[in-house]
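During the second half of the funding period, the structural biology subgroup turned its attention to how the target accommodates small molecules. The most pressing case was 6-diazenyl-5-OXO-L-norleucine, which had performed well in the primary screen but for which no bound structure existed. We therefore specified the complex as follows and requested a full 3D prediction, including the ligand pose.
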Amino acid sequence: MSRLISFIVLLLTGRLTTDGAGSGLISKGWVATVQPIATQAGLEALKSGGNAVDAAIACALTLGVVDGHNSGIGGGCFMTLRLADGRVVTLDGRETAPARATKDMFLRDGKVEARISQDGALAVGIPGEMATLAYASRRFGRLPLRQLLEAAAQVADRGFAIDRQYANRLHSTRDQLASFPESAAIFIQGLPHNPKEGDRLRQADLAHSYRALATNGIDWFYKGTFAHDVGTWMKSHGGSVTAADFASYEMVSREPVRGTYRGYEIVSFPPPSSGGVHVIQILNLLEGFNLRAMGDSSADFVHVVTEAMKLAFADRAKWLGDPDFAPVPRGLLRKEYAGELAQRIRLDRASVVTEAGHPPQAETDVFSREQKRHTTHFSTADLEGNWVACTASLNTSFGSKVVVPGTGILLNNHMDDFSAQAGVPNYFGLVGGEANAIEARKRPLSSMSPTLVLKNGRPILSVGAAGGPTIISQTLLVILRTLDFGQSPREALAGIRFHHQWKPNELHVEKTLGKGVIKELQKRGHPLVVEDSLGAAQAVGLDAQGQLIGAADPRGQGSAAGL
Ligand code: DON
């Protein structure tokens, strides 16, 4: 209650602003997440002397409680950080396949069986979010991790009112959750019969797990009780994950991918994300077009950007995978390669992209480990110059639906992000090949794209999104609207979204796109699918006066606030 009162006092005295209110009175930083309780947790971290990194960790841990169907410590994350001293760091907490995983583990009678890659024991990869948060805290944070764990544990213990999206996800996933007694006890029996927005969810076991981590440290998770309990459960439920898989999990600090667009620097997440590579590739493809003259959301704009998306997603299907296992060409990022591909874009009609391109030195100039020595995105920044973009995920709603008894921790289903069989689409309709085939200890390919935009070395935007492959399109569109159309983070997030991922050949557009534009796009040969809404992105950026400002996606119930 006292926290609520101090929040209201800050709001009334103008020392705290929410959503696009913008103010020179900000003294510490901004936070934007999909859930107001998580945004508030980020602000509390700033208020108690933490920096943007502590705020991001507080958001992640709290999202695992109040938005646990999307992300949590049973899943993975990618975190892109720009530190006050100018360094940029990308932390890869993506899940890995268990050591006993095999290429054809999801095939039954030669065919992919999606159910087993999406629900239950075999769907689970070794979670990397907790290793990432602990590393970020130790290296770049200011507050003790146990303080942030305890704050999130209190939310889990006390309970919280579920929002509309949470209630909807409970309804759509109810039957699958019901197959797992522990998950059913928490997410079905723990709530009234027909759960609705405002109902209270308490998660005592999750609170207990957070406190065990606070007391015993990260080893509790990777080498201690939790790893052991998961291993034991897996053994008796047909899984292949073992305690040894947890013990050998490694978060990887990678070199970010970098590009430029109209004089701005784009810094984003490298493989095993496809996000950074393709956001930069698409920006390279578009640099030769005068998008500003075309006008935001005009038929020409949507057409040209769609054509660029198709070319990039065709490359994704062929070339992208975990760089520690498959050769991923660095040439995908080259301006010359984009220039070559861009020649295939015609203004008057949709092209037919039949196959991937061939980036320069595709076999020899590759990303490698040696060169570096249903999801949520949140962004934070502080006035010292620390900026964070972090996307975290269990994959689809409630991940594998598995909670190992007593832990309260939902486990991910990220094994479904592998290509279970060449050319066979996964949950998101994405196809892949050898580069993203299942292998022991390999990371599944991701679209998560936590991205920073810099001008003269100074960050001006932190952005990313949830929504499978549409993450790439959403992140791209926010960047284009910021850089080409001079929009504020709030305007850029509100802008009409569209998405094309090469296969299937469908251009998904939000219904707010004008009828005239839709007709014109159909005339040019785009097979259109009209959607109510697409995705969920969050951003922190600068307003016209150069002041920090954040925004949450207006399509959702999230919030952004500064302190
Ligand atoms: O890593 C990826 O690309 C996906 N597993 C992200 C999943 C996601 O965004 C689900 N949200 N709707």
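Two results from this model are relevant to the next phase. The chain is about 35% helix and 20% strand. The two ends are 19 Å apart (CA to CA).
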